[in-house]
Amino acid sequence: MTRFVGHGRQEVTTADELTPVDEHLAAVLDLLPTPEPIGLRLSDALGLVLAEDIVSEVRVPDFANAAMDGYAVVVSDLEAATSTVPVGLPVVGEVAAGPGRATTLTAGRVARIMTGAPLPEGAEAVVPVETTSGGSGQVYFHAPVPVGTNVRYPGEDLQPGQPLLSAGHRVSPADVGLLAVAGVARVRCLPPPRVVVLSSGDELVPAEDIPGPGQIRDANGPMLAAMIRAAGGVPFSAGIVPDEPDAVRWAIDANLGHADLVLSTGGASAGTRDLLPDVIGELGEVRTVKVAMKPGMPQILGSVRGTPVIGLPGNPVSAFVSFEVFVRPALRRLQGRRGIDRPTVTARAGTRLSAPRHKRGYTRVRLERDGDGWVATPTGPQGSHVITSIALANGLAVVPEDVMEIPEGGEVTVRLLVD
Fold first, then answer.
1. Which of 41, 197, 261, 358 has the fewest CB atoms within 10 Å distance of its CB?
2. Reduced to 3 states, what is the DSSP secondary structure of residue 226?
3. What CATH number should be reported for the domain holding residue 184?
4. Range of the domain at 184
């Protein structure tokens, strides 16, 4: 009688051991804390989600002003003007943009005026300089103009009490301009989530080192930090952590103070050096999960003193796909984003696509236009260690759990990897 735990198995993992992808994603999202809003300077709010409605307290423009460089006029003075018989009027002064004394204009006179300058009292329109004879002493006009021509009236853009932006809105560059003109210097937003990244494994060395026998350079740490930043989070590197319980324990415990989420790679499988679940369990709560997906089946989900801990597989492709499927939606949820999922398109398979029985397959593909549609072609070998397959990809072709094969030319849903 053998003591080997897999004695008699025909498969590494059976269907009843697998957790559906959507069920695990829901568990990840349920573990997230409720983010607390913070007050920020307007210049620091770009890309963040507002935590409250913003209403204008001012009128914009606050005064009538010129929309073009030209001449402020009384419209009745130009009623008889034609292209062949222009009307000539004296120029009594110039009004520039900026502070200065208020001016008054009476019939039979005009004032030179600059864009944005206050409209003189009595003036009814602004005639562009390009449509006149120009001049600073006498100017000729060749057509009548209606009241209000090239005049910006008070409150034309904003009125007190006018809603500007709503809670849940993500601040864009145009929004920054809108709030600035309304005099809003600070806003309350949901802050970008802070994510501590741990790369575990005795075999890992930094990118700048030359690997020794049995060693490899750490791709996951830098890659995941970049993915966190691209998803709107702020990454903090805990460095490479050796396969020692005390080292793993210290790396987690020492970084909880500045983490909204701890993200680790490696130590999620069934090897004798996969220590992460035991350490997280000592510090808090932990679950190891076999998710019905390939790549990325072994996952860890836990919590230490209220901080979620997500453990991803150590193979780079598995870590990349797992981040896309579970971590990126979590980061967007923490930011208060309305849409947490990547957009998808329907494409034709450029070649046969397959997935293991009972698992959702994620094939790295390159999407290209073909007539009115898309064609999705795998980016080469699809092993979970082949990092070139993700570097060349702009999409993940999804083969559902109940479909083991999509033939060449068949319809496939592709999850886009571009924003």
1. 41
2. helix
3. 3.90.105.10
4. 39-53+162-190
Contact between 312 and 327 under an 8 Å Cβ cutoff? The reply is yes
pLDDT tens string 86-104: 999 999 999 999 887 778 9
> Does residue 328 share a domain with residue 276?
yes
Q: Look at the block and give the residue holding tokens 């598995």.
A: 318
Burial 179-191 (b: 16+ CB within 10 A, else e): beebebeebebbb
CA atoms within 13 A on the CB side of 145: 23
Strands 110-113 and 54-55: unpaired
**Spatial distance between the Cα atoms of 43 and 177, rounded to a whole number of angstroms:** 10
Q: How far apart are CA 376 and CA 367, in angstroms?
A: 5
Please write the tens of the pLDDT for every residue from 169-217: 999 999 999 999 999 999 999 999 999 999 988 899 888 999 899 988 9
Of residues 250, 213, 216, 252, the one with CA closest to residue 236: 252
- Is 222 part of any domain? yes
- Which residues, in sequence order, are CB contacts of 193 under 8 Å at separation 6+? 35, 232, 233, 234, 260, 261, 331, 334, 335
Same structural domain for residues 221 and 280? yes
**Concatenated DSSP letters of 60-88:** BSSS-EESSSEEEE-GGGGTT--SSSPEE
Q: Could you tell me the sign of the dihedral formed by the alpha carbons of 117, 123, 126, 129, in that order?
A: negative
Predicted model pTM: 0.86
The count of residues in the chain is 419
Domain count, the chain: 4
10 Å CB burial of residue 356 (0-12, 13-18, 19+) is middle
DSSP 388: H
C-alpha–C-alpha distance, residues 263 and 367, integer Å = 30
Residue 256 lies in a domain: yes
Are 195 and 236 spatial neighbours (Cβ–Cβ below 8 Å)?
Answer: yes
Give tens-digit pLDDT for 229-271: 999 999 999 999 998 899 999 999 999 999 999 999 986 655 5
Residue 101 in domain: yes
Q: Are 198 and 317 within one domain?
A: yes
Which residues make beta-bridge pairs with 138? 90
Strands (E), 11-115: 38-41, 49-50, 54-55, 65-66, 70-73, 87-95, 110-113
- Domain assignment of residue 115, yes or no: yes
- DSSP per residue, 308-361: EEEEE-SSHHHHHHHIIIIIHHHHHHHTT-S--SPPEEEEEESS-EE--TTSEE
